[in-house]
Structure formats: C-alpha cells, structure tokens
Input
Amino acid sequence: MRILLFTGKGGVGKTTLAAATGAALAARGRKTLVVSTDPAHSLGDAFGHPLGAEPSEVDALLSAVQVDSRTLVDTSWHRLRAELQAALSGAGLDTLDAEELTVLPGVDELLALTEVRRLAEEGRWDTIVVDCGPTAETLRLLALPEAVSGYLSRVFGRRVTESVRRLGAHLDGLRALLTEPSVTTVRLVLTPERVVVAEARRTLSSLALRGIAVDGLIANRLMPAPGFWRGGAASWLRTRRTQQDAVLAELAAAGFRHVSRVEHRAVEPVGLPALLEIAAELYRGGDPLDGDGTPVTPLLRVRPSPEGYTLRVAIPLGRGTEVDLARVDDDLAITVDGFRRLIALPESLRPCRITGAESDADGLVVSLAGNRGRG
Ligand SMILES: Nc1ncnc2c1ncn2[C@@H]1O[C@H](COP(=O)(O)OP(=O)(O)OP(=O)(O)O)[C@@H](O)[C@H]1O
Ligand SMILES: [Mg+2]
Output
C-alpha cells in the first residue's frame, strides 16, 4: 500500500496533478483511489465525473472520493467529542470547561486524515492519492496527530482513561502512517515564479521536521518554448519562459536537483484523456510511484564524537533561515522560521549537554558533551 499526498500553494495544480497521477496508476494496473480533502469540490471537475462522500468508480481500477469533513464532523466527531468530554471531566475539569476544550481547531482536518486512514485500512486499493488543500493547511493537518497526542499526554500524564488512551492510540496510528516513508510520501507542486524557492524550502523543512518524506517536486504551468517563431506572441512566450527558466535554475542552484515539469496547456486538462496526457509528460513513461530518487534520510542520526556525541537533524535549511535550539527536559526544541517542534532525545543523549550547533548542506549538526557510556 502506498499513499501519495499532493500539496502546494493555492491554484498551482494540486488537484489536476493528483487526478492525473491517479489515472496513470490505474492505467498501469494498480487499483487506485484518489481522495480530495479540499472542501471546494474540484476533483470531480478534474475527472469530469461527479463524486460523492463514498468512493465511486471513475474508470476501471480507478475510484475517487470527495471527503466531506462537515458530514464527518456531524458523525464521527460527536462520538470522539463525547469521549473526550467524559475523559476531561474524569480528570477533574467541570463539564463546561470540558465542552470549551473540545472545540479544537483543526478538527475538520483531523477527521479528513482519519478518513484517509480508514480508506487505507479497508485494503481495497493498492495506492491512495490524496489531493490535499493548500500547503499551510496541509502542514497543519500533518502536524495535528503529533500535536494533539503530545497535548493529551501532557494534560493527562499517567491518569489516562480508556477513551483518552484510545484517542491517543488513534493519533499515534495516524502519525505512524504519515511518517512511514515506505508508505507515505509528499509531492510538492509549484509554479515557476519568483519567491517559490524560499517558500519551497520552508515547506520542505517543515515537512522534514514532522518526519514526513518528500519524494517529488513538480513545476507546473511551464510556458511552452516558442522555438524559432517570430512575432509579438512568440516574444511574449519567450520572455515568460526565460523568466521561468531562471526560477528553475535558481531551484537547481538551491539544491533541488530533481524538478519534474508540466507545460501550461491551452485548454484546461479535464477528463481522463487530458489527465493521462499530463501524466505522460510528468512521469515520462516511468512509474508514478517512483519518487525522484532522493534517498530518504532519517530525521535523527547519532554518532559518537571525542567529546560525547554529534546529533544530525536532517532538515533542509536555506541561507537566512532562522533556527533556534533549546533543551526542554528530555526533548530538543527546534524552531525553524517560527515553526517549533519538540524532538525526544535518544536515551543515550539525555544526560548530555548541548555544546554547539551548526548547519551544513544536509541540515543541523548538534554537538553534545559528557556522560558517554553511562546513559
Ligand atoms: N498544466 C496546466 N495547463 C493548463 N491548465 C492547468 C494546468 N494545471 C492546472 N490547470 C488548471 O488550473 C486550474 C487550477 O488547477 P487545480 O485546480 O488543479 O489547482 P489546485 O492547486 O488544486 O487549486 P486549489 O488550491 O484551488 O485547490 C484548473 O482550472 C486547472 O484545470
Ligand atoms: Mg485543488
């Protein structure tokens, strides 16, 4: 089972490329489900096929579903919320507080993810392609299982009731699914315009901090090269394409070696034949499941050093990225451009002191001293 998540800024082509990828996977004989978690029902428009909240068949081996988080809120959330409320009042909070606490932001997103997991566990599909909402929301969505389960364990500690334990286990399961690189990978879609480089990097480091593997970067809406044509229109195209090529070169210089490309079509790619054509350009006859070949490095690696240990944290950092490191009990708090994550230090490092940190092409290198061999 594989899960491919498509994300990127608003309007860059996430839905179109997710649909095209799904169509290409099915054409190669894989049972594929394309899921949209975006409340705007555009996946059905891309397929030219009306979709519902239950998977419906778009073609042989290809199904699609429009996850409707509002309905999910009405059904699943009520049960979960009641459980959480019972748990909170069991922990000494009165019912009113408990009620306020259970109006969590991000519940829609959490339920959408839960639905993806439920569909994955049905085992009916070889691949699930997820058309996620815009990047910021996706990042929030992907951080939720970890954030909420951390919150639960801090609030409840060991006095965990059965329902909180179940909720925690559910969130851990979601996180495990998302951070298993042999199952889940992210494809980041962008349009080659200025400012995308810094932004792509920010997105990639946020995903890396969350332990989520990215195995593809796609530049969509590339202007066709006008060749030797003459005239005003050709010159306009040439200028636009030159600007876009400069952005692609900047991406390459920033270390993004593999960027797949899709040209801007004159006609919106709607319906299976047009989507398959997009996929042919995107994957060039290769398997859409194969990522760009970037090896997936684990987030943390520990090596002994003369003074203690060095800890490598694999997060892509650009020049000018603001990084802040702090020790919080047994965790390392890493803040990159304002996004903070607590990473549990491996057992052996807990008695050590942080003595320094620097960054290189592969991420952060933290030096720790003391107590080697004892912890
Ligand atoms: N390569 C392309 N050539 C021409 N039109 C395209 C291309 N890619 C996408 N489009 C069109 O651009 C519009 C936006 O694409 P799409 O809906 O896939 O973007 P999105 O990233 O999912 O947007 P949103 O953030 O709103 O969900 C659609 O009308 C789509 O048909
Ligand atoms: Mg979309």
